[in-house]
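Please review this pair:
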Amino acid sequence: MDTRKLIGPILALLVAAGVGMGIYFSAERKAESDRVKIEAAQVVSLRGLVGSEKEGFFADPRVTAALRKQGLAVQVEKVGSRAIALRQDLKNYDFGFPAGAPAAIKLQGAVNARQTYNPFFTVMAVATWQTLIPVLEANGLVRAEAGGYRVLDMKRLIELAEGQARWRDLKDNTIYSTGRSVLINSTDVRRSNSAAMYLALASYVANDANIVQTDSEIRKVLPLVSSLFLRQGLQESSSAGPFEDYVTMGIGKAPLVMIYEAQFLAHLAQSKSRNPDMVLIYPQPTVYTKHTLVPFNEKGERLGEALTSDPELQKLAAEYGLRTGNPEHFAAFLKSNKLSAPTAVLDVVEPPSYEVLERMIEEIERKF
């Protein structure tokens, strides 16, 4: 057979196949483009104000992707938790996400929110240094618990602070023999929830292990608890600042720092090389901090529901050292990162009522 006679039909078939493939792929691309457009049209964009301790969580691409599955695209701006309610431009945002119930109550009242959401929580803790532990133990400030973690005796600390003890006054102190006062470094109690929780603990101890409730009790504890903040000097407005100083500047800047447990654990989990001298101790008593989302509208409510109920988002929160309603997530996070933390902290007290805490903060503010 003359092969030249076959060339024409073969070329025609190839051209037809090429056209067919082109039409097929063009249709596929159009379908994909249409799908992306439909998904984009279904995604709701939100803006929110969050405590600095949650900034990394919202910046995580996995969190962004999980939220997008829920039809949400979230942009956040970090602000001191207590300062969120003081903003004059809340109408430009869809939600506020402070740390701590008192800050959330203040914000909820400012925007008349119908409800709030508590997707995760953490424990107030103190960051210190392994080299300091022998000194703290020798002076009755720190002891080991059966659960394998250490506690800071808040009553003993308050006694030393009330007596205006200095580090060089402590027995057997050759590690940090300075003239600085024995105090816990904190954030600004007027702006930050972590400092407000420190105030809650200190006022409880100063009130003979009772939650402050009355005017007379406020007057009783105010001179002491005020000094815990006034004697610190400059304080930052968000919890990220003191913890960053602790990590980067070492013991000279921050021998004892009031932080969230989640900050410490997340830092270790994300660090390529861990500083073995960093150690976390738990105040006894301590207090839980609920991370409370306050929606300003229906979009904010959708986010609150997603963070509270979506298993993927709950698991990702645990990877930032946050405790959720499912303790298995937190346990898995600790195990995978070779970290240790108490499964349950037993000696936990409630903060004073919102009104009492606000009054104490207002009184301290007058003294600044």
